[in-house]
Amino acid sequence: MRLESGQPSVAIANEGGRFQLLAPQGAPAVAMSDEGWAKFAADLNARLDGLDKENRQLASVEESQYWELRHRLGREFIQSLPPIALPEATAGEAANHSIDQFINARLTANKKEPNRLVNDLAFLRRLSLDCRGTAPTRDEIAQFLKAAPSERRMQAIARLLKDEGWADNWVGYWQDVLAENPGLVKPTLNNT
Questions:
Q1: Which residues pair with 30 in a beta bridge?
Q2: What are the average pLDDT values for consecutive 10-residue runs of the chain, which has 192 residues?
Q3: Which pLDDT score, from 0 to 100, does residue 46 have?
Q4: In what helix (H) or strand (E) does residue 11 lie, and over which residues does it extend?
């Protein structure tokens, strides 16, 4: 069932009719034309994709069970830990998220001033470089500026985290972090 041209085939035609590939009884006939072959190839690819998906699912059952167990054990462990105390809000400092309270508490303890917020365009540039390693395009800047000022940063974050460039940009980092390379962090066997 190779799809390259020039391969031998067995076809049959009634007198005056078009040739059709000889097929098992009950199988749909394949007309020997560009349209017939295109339909046959598309149907074959769909059938093979379905078989591939089915076989992958069967092969992954054991792996899925393992990771479900690991995730359950991880959740149980986290729930067994005492809750982390949220620091008091620092007077005069913005806290848009609970993580800000931790940052503000650390800054206050170290007698440091927080950096000023950057303007929207600097934020978009930094976000784009951090997420996918490239500067925003003109169209992305225009789209960003069309959004309401109170919404534009969150919309840009959501959009860039869904961008495939995010994975492309971070794969090198995660390969280094997760690589089974004993010399990467410590020169001992199986340290990762």
A1: 21
A2: 64 82 77 83 90 88 88 95 89 82 91 90 96 94 96 95 89 78 56 50
A3: 93
A4: strand 11-12
46 is written with which tokens? 């769909």
CA neighbor of 169 nearest in space, from 135, 126, 124, 133: 133
Given this model, what pLDDT does residue 181 score? Answer: 58
Q: For residue 99, what is the enclosing H or E element? A: helix 98-109
The tokens for 41 are 């190839």
pLDDT of residue 187: 57
Please name the residues in contact with 11: beta carbons below 8 A apart, sequence gap of 6 or more.
Answer: 19, 20, 21, 22, 32
How is 115-170 classified by DSSP, letter by letter?
PPPPPHHHHHHHHHHHHHSSPPPHHHHHHHHHS-TTTHHHHHHHHHHHSHHHHHHH
pTM to 2 decimals? 0.48
b/e sequence 152-191, b meaning 16+ C-beta within 10 Å = bbeebeeebeeeeeeeebeeeeeeeeeeeeeeeeeeeeee
DSSP code, position 111: T
Strands across the sheet with 20-21, in order?
A: 11-12, 20-21, 30-31
- List the structure tokens of 106: 């650390």
Q: Which of 145, 167, 171 is nearest to 156 (CA)?
A: 145
Q: Distance between CA 40 and CA 3 in Å, rounded?
A: 10
